[in-house]
């Protein structure tokens, strides 16, 4: 039987942590793109579209991420595609992230005073122009801290993809535990690696919030 | 797509599903009560508590908020037995939920407490209230009233997050769904049904908490 040194364990976990990072980035960027589309439908768009996007957001916020992963994993298979775990993981995480980001950003857009919409409309701007030149540049400032804060949820959300068999940090933790029989050390280390990924994000979110609040007070 | 949907298994599997629902509801009820209690205690320490305890609680909160629930669960269920602390799946699941909700609700309640105007503390003291009475009647209850919506959302999030306790074989709703789909080979339908049940539970829990808030805080919010 091979003996595993502490270094062996840590090295394997760190190698797997790369996939946690990659998956987080893919879900966050993909979720951001889908989220923007949802946001446009949610606040502008036709009535039917507004209702539809609201339903989408409530559905994804009101069900467990784990169930969404299962549904993506088994649901994509219904179309006759052989679904690898990474694909199901990406699809589910992107759709889940999009729902939350769209809702966060909606709050930010709605925090912009109504007069701004009216003023830009009175200048003859269309909906997209209003968004592009007037609303979004102002909403962006409000949106940065909660968006960075939500990225922590995305990193933590990727842990669930281990359950459908995607090998990232959590799955690697289970595999290494099964090989070494040292659950305390291994899961402790896994937790610390997640902490190292998430804590800087949490802190910078808090710092940004404080900074932007100061900017608000100066108005 | 030539797939034929089949929900015929639903009737035969109803007892398993109902048991799963019962366990999930039980987990969140116990988790919410003790989790919020822990959150209140931690929020007290972080705002008005003894100085030496503050960094301990701050570390706890940061550790929990920056690691996935799944890993906390694994650490409690698989890791702690090496220290000689053993517990059943359900106990471990509930403990993990309490510890998790405790950290999140601590931050939420703390925000509520910090929004209390300074003068209210002084007013409480000038009425000869003990520090505990001041905390309870003057600080905590209005603080809870202020942050009740945020706290409710967090409790619903913990309920949805509890789906992963099936991974340590706690027999909740997700465990029931996994069990059923391994029997009927109708994975997609089974998970659709359990997802809809979770959605219904989430809506129900939200309504319940709104009603509870309405009962607990009959007075108008004081600003």
Describe this entry's structure for a reader.
Chain B: InterPro entries: AA_ABC_transptr_permease_3TM, ArtM/GltK/GlnP/TcyL/YhdX-like, MetI-like, MetI-like_sf. The complex is a heterodimer of chains A (219) and B (223). By secondary structure, chain A is an all-alpha fold. Chain A has one domain: Orthogonal Bundle (MetI-like fold). Helix content of chain A is 82%, strand content 0%. Chain A contains eight helices and no strands. In chain A, helix 4 packs across helix 6 (127-157). Chain B is mainly α. Chain B has a single domain (9-216), classed as MetI-like (MetI-like fold, Orthogonal Bundle), CATH 1.10.3720. Helices cover 76% and strands 0% of the residues of chain B. Chain B has helices spanning 9-47, 54-65, 69-79, 89-114, 118-126, 131-161, 173-184, 187-216. In chain B, helix 1 runs antiparallel to helix 2 (54-65) and helix 7 runs antiparallel to helix 8 (187-216). Chain B is elongated, with a radius of gyration of 21 Å. The model of chain B has no long low-confidence stretch (mean pLDDT 92). Classes of the chains: A mainly alpha (219), B mainly alpha (223). Chains A and B meet through helix 3, helix 6, helix 7 and helix 8 of A and helix 2, helix 3, helix 6 and helix 8 of B.
Key features of this structure:
A: 219 residues; MetI-like fold; B: mainly alpha; 8 helices; 76% helix; 0% strand; MetI-like_sf (chain B); membrane (chain B); cell membrane (chain B)
Largest sheet of chain A: none
The N- to C-terminal Cα distance of chain A equals 68 Å
Q: What is the typical, i.e. mean, pLDDT of chain B?
A: 92
What share of residues are in beta strands of chain A? under 5%
Major sheet size, sense and barrel closure of chain B = none
Transmembrane segments (chain A): 20-44, 56-79, 85-105, 142-164, 184-202
InterPro entries (chain A): AA_ABC_transptr_permease_3TM, ArtM/GltK/GlnP/TcyL/YhdX-like, MetI-like, MetI-like_sf
Organism (chain A): Mesorhizobium escarrei
Protein name (chain A): Polar amino acid transport system permease protein
